[in-house]
Structures are given as structure tokens and as C-alpha cells.
Fold these 3 entries.
Entry 1:
Amino acid sequence: MERKDIESTMIRSIGFESDSSTLEVEFKSGVVWQYYDFPESSWYEFDGSESKGKFFLREIRGQYSESQVS
């Protein structure tokens, strides 16, 4: 999945695949996680949020099926 680098103290890059409704987040540690059944509307909110880390903690972590991919 293609990700884009972002400015964040917690997250290095984010990407979204609309066909599978999968969000991918690469953290500063280098670990990559995928979140499944992620709504496209939430992707636009996440991508447009001022603080990606705060949005992630408030709206994503623990809310979706997930798996570590690297």
C-alpha cells in the first residue's frame, strides 16, 4: 500500500486503500499496522486532522480490527 509521510511526533506515514477499506499506519518506531473496515469518510477526517496522533488515539486505536504487518 502506498503511504504518505506526515508531520507527527507519533506517526511516520499513513495510507488508505478504498477497495478494501484498509488504513495503514507506520509509526515512528518503524512498526506498521493495518486497520480493517475503516470508513473512507474517516480517512478524510484523519488525513485532514491537525494532530494525526491525537486523532489516532481518540478515533482509531482499539476501534477497528487490526494486525501488525511489519
Entry 2:
Amino acid sequence: MPDNLKDRGPQDRTRINVNEEWELRYWTKELGVSEQRLRELVKQHGVSADSIRRALGKKVA
């Protein structure tokens, strides 16, 4: 299924995909980190958005 470019957020908001430019923009803004930092966090903690939030000391829903 092709991406819906009108949807401004990731289709699966539980996972971070650093291979899509628009998802990188979304997650860097959402988490308040640079692209480089986000890539490092994903490498260290995996693609789970909750894991990344915990690593940043942010509240997990």
C-alpha cells in the first residue's frame, strides 16, 4: 500500500522508521531531537517509540 502523503504522521506511531525522510521530520519534531540523535537512539534502543521516549526521559502513554 503506498504512503498517504496527506497524513502528516507515521501510519504506525508505535515504531520509528528512520529510512523515510518525512518520518524523520515527524519524529525529530515530536521528540525534540536532531536527526543524528534520533538515528543513534534507534540504533541503541530499537524502533519502538516508547523505548525511545523512555531513553529520553519522556513520559510514555
Entry 3:
Amino acid sequence: MVSLHRKLLLWLLLPQLVLWLAGGVVTYRLAAGYANRAIDASLAQASRTLLRQVKPIEQGLLIDFPRAAQDVLEADPNDRLMYMVSTPPGRFILGNNTLPPPPAREPQLDTPYFYNAEIAPAAGASGKTKHMRIAALYVAYGDIASPKQTMLVQVARSSANREELARAILADTLLPLSGLMLLMSLIVWAGIRAGLAPIAGLRQAVENRAPGDLTPIKIDLAPIELRSLASALNELLASVRHHMGAQQRFIGDAAHQLRTPLAGLQSQTRLALDAVTDEALRTRLTLVHQSAARSAHLVSQLLTLARAEPGAAAALAPTQFDLQRFTQELVAQLVPRALRYEVDLGYDADQSGAIPVYANAPLLREALTNLIDNAIRYAGSGAEVTMRVSQDQGQAVIVVEDNGPGIPAAERERVFERFVRATHSGDGCGLGLSIVKEIVERHNGSVVLGDSVPRGLQVTIRLPSAAPES
């Protein structure tokens, strides 16, 4: 799939390439034309010079063509000037007898005209066929005493120099033109990047968002062409926020409505257990009490999950506070719960002094409470649960580990899903780790499950230490 950047670059550079090729062809034709004119002028001058060496006299023609003049004409071995004088035309008198006659046409006296011809090597001689440019000059001579006759003077030069001159002109023209085209291509590329930068910014703004971030996209600096797209996305986000808000309100209202009767049911079953003496009835009441407690815990988890949803979390602005002091107070509050389950809950700080974290304190409290509560519930009686906090590479690190049975590696991804439990023991409802992941991701953090040494489960949470740069 071709990107818009490449497509624009292709459509802008392709016409330049076509124009460059067309310019090369036109330049070569013009260069060849100018070279022909120069060569034709030199051939015309040479033919008239040669004509002056042939003088008509009463008895015939006087040829005054010394050897030195011939050497001058034939001095360049790569571009020898060939000549031929014939009278009447076609009857050889002087020069190279290999020059072909001019094309059949009505001769014009004293006016040279030019044509192209090929001269094959002599019989038995090696070499290639030569492409020649030939000037033909017809002149009339004679007077009253002698009849008038026509003489043909032909001078030829190889076309190789003409083509070489044309190529040189083409190269001298196209080299700076190619440089200008390269410079123009770089300018076009830079212009396209600058012009499409708002699109890249909009794409980055969408790609870098957390999955539950439903805040509107800023369109103040966007060009007019993109504002309609950004407005449509904002309308869609607003609609999603509205529906999610309605869903969260429904869950919250339902949970609040269920909390009071469930608390009353727990109180009544507890009183009934204290008063009943029949063992069979006590067993049934115990099951009812456990079900009521589990239902109350589920309602509490649903309320926490509703508060951790994107729409509700957006209303709670994060702040920077001391993670070490925060977690110390939390662990102290949860020690009585750990004692009820006969679990040793401890705390350890890898460094002294404050450890900053950028988070929403109530939501982070819910997440860590659920994490420690899970460890207490499933580690088993006599287990040890330890929380450690530290700072690493600009992030606050929270580790909760226990020496309980742990979670198999194959189940560690699934336990973050809602209502998924790794074990059927205990009275959990499968929402604890889901709430932890939901809250951590709301804070642009990460949560990872690993093995504790020598046995058990280790949960590592990483959160930003400071607010992200805008």
C-alpha cells in the first residue's frame, strides 16, 4: 500500500523526469543542428578554397594543388577531410575517388549544398563503413573559345566529430540541468514533508493514545482540510464516552442498590449463626453467609472497576506524590486483614527518601489493595507477602510477591481478563487482577507477572514518576 507521501512525491517527480528526458532529446537535436551548421560552414569554405586551386585554361584545367596543401587537409587522422574534383560531374580528376555522387537533383551553380552518405572500405581493406557529411559545389567554366562545361567539387568530413560535439553540448547542458532537478526534487520532498506534517501529527496523536483514552483531539493547529476529519473523530469519541458513561452509571447504580441488601443479608445470617443450635441448619446458614459475603465482594469489585473505566478515570486528575509513604500507610491498613488469613504481610523499600509517582491516589490505592488482597487470599495460611518499592529509569516500581502456589505461566495472560480465575479455591470473583491492569494502563504504566524465588508469584508494576511532557 503506497503512502500519501510517496504518491505525492511520485506524481510531482514523474513530470520532472519526463520533462528532463524531453529536454535531453530537444537539446541533442539542437546541438546536432548547431554542429551541422558549423561543419557545413567549414565544408563550404574548404570547397571554395579547393575550387580556387583548379583554374580553367584554354587547353583545359590547371591544377595548382601542392603536396603541402594536401597534407593540411589530411592532417587529422581521426577526422580526415576527403575531397574530389570531377568534370564533367562523375569523371574523376583529383582527390578521393570513393566519394559518392550527390543525390539526383537539378544542380545550382556556385551554391554548395550538403548531404549525408556512407563510404564503405575499399575492396580487400579492413575497416568500418564511415558516415560522412559532404558538401557539393557545381561551377561552370569555359568561354567563347572553348565550350562551357560543369565541374563538381566535393569535400567530405566524418560525422563522428559532429556527433561528439553534439554529445559534448548535450552533456554540458544536462549536467547543470540534472543538478537543478536534483535540487528541485529535494525541495519538493522537503515541501511534501512539511505539508503533510499535520497529518503525521494527527496520526501520532491517535496512535500514541492509550486504548481507553477518549479525550477530544486538539484541532486548533490542524489545517482546514484535516479539521473535518478531526471533528468527526471527536464526535465519535464523544458518542463512545456518552455510551460508556451510561454503562458505568448503570453498573454503579446497580452495585449501590445491591450493596445495602447484601450487607443486611450478611448481618442477618451472622446473627442467625450465633443463635442457631441445629448443625444441619448451621451448615446451610454458613453457605448462605459465604454466598452473601462473596456477592458483597463482587459488588465492591464492580464499583471499583466502574471507577477505573476510561470515562470515570478521566474525571480524576493524577498528581505527583511520594510512593514510599503512600504504600507504607496502605500496608499498615491491610495488616489486620492479613492476620485474619494468618499471612505475614511485610514491607521493604530499596532506597531511602521519597520515591515520586505520577498517579491518581484513590485509583492506585484500589489497584494495590486488590493486588495485596489477591496475594493474601490465594497464598494460603502461613504464607509471606511482601511489597517493595523503588525507582528505576524515571519510573516508580512496585513489586508484590508471595511464596504461595503461584500462577502457571500459561495462565498469566488470561488472569487479567474479567471473571477469569487461575484456581477454584478461595472466594474471589475473578476481577482483582483485571482491576489492577485497568488502573495501571490508565496511568500509562505496565503490570507483569513473574516467578518468585524460591516459589510463588511476583507482580511488578511500573508507573511514571512525573507528568508526561506536552
